[in-house]
Design brief:
The structure is a single chain. The chain has one domain (3-207). An 8-stranded antiparallel β-sheet has the order 2-3-4-7-11-10-9-8. The radius of gyration is 17 Å and the shape is globular. By secondary structure, it is α+β, with helices and mostly antiparallel strands. β10 and β11 (138-144) form a beta hairpin. The chain has 5 helices and 12 strands.
Length: 209
């Protein structure tokens, strides 16, 4: 499945959860939020109760959790637009999805650039509106309507179901993320210093017959 196909499917899920109303989006119920705060499988990230004026309108929840799709937090209502697939899609002000990292290629993301955000490796793509961050044993995906909003969301990231704050650096990834394209000297140093020399071990495994 291509990244664009996956994005389209995620947008469809957002439509079902948050709706495409033109008026103000209703905030998530206290019970749903409490359920998300008890999510047990890994540290779940969000940008607080509101983002750019939009409240949290839905969280995937434990009952709908799938390791393949991760756990998502949705903000606000949809804005209809036409995707690069030529299909109508629904793009929320912000979607944040956290899941356990599995090795994969970023080649399908299209034009992209590799950066360091919140002290961890990250890739920016989709006209700057999408950012993937690599932290701990997790990958955090942010999908916003603009590049400025995506960067703002990165700055606001914090754990939903664990202690933490926006002022803290994210934990370094315990794996070597599969980055495509140019890597700056600073990012190369960060990758070389990952816990247990994760990238060096990855290169050795790839070179093994």
């Amino acid at each position: 499945m291509t990244a664009l196909k996956a994005a389209a499917l995620l947008a469809c899920a957002a439509i079902a959860l948050a709706g495409c109303a033109t008026g103000p989006a209703p905030a998530i119920s206290p019970g749903e939020l409490a359920n998300a705060e008890l999510f047990p499988y890994f540290k779940l990230y969000w940008a607080g109760r509101r983002f750019a004026g939009a409240p949290v309108t839905a969280v995937s929840g434990r009952t709908g959790y799938s390791p393949r799709t991760g756990e998502s937090v949705y903000y606000g209502n949809c804005a209809n637009e036409t995707s690069l697939l030529g299909e109508g899609t629904c793009r929320l002000p912000l979607e944040i999805t956290t899941f356990i990292y599995a090795p994969h290629t970023n080649a399908t993301l299209g034009p992209q650039r590799n950066v360091i955000l919140r002290s961890v490796p990250a890739v920016i793509f989709d006209h700057e509106r999408s950012i993937d961050l690599y932290t701990g044993h997790l990958e955090i995906q942010l999908r916003a309507r603009t590049g400025a909003a995506a960067l703002q969301a990165v700055a606001m990231l914090q754990p939903l179901n664990a202690p933490g704050s926006t002022a803290e650096a994210l934990p370094a990834p315990t794996y070597c993320p599969s980055l495509e394209g140019a890597i700056s000297a600073a990012l190369a140093r960060l990758l070389a210093d990952l816990p247990d020399h994760a990238c060096e071990r990855s290169r050795i495994l790839e070179a093994s017959p």
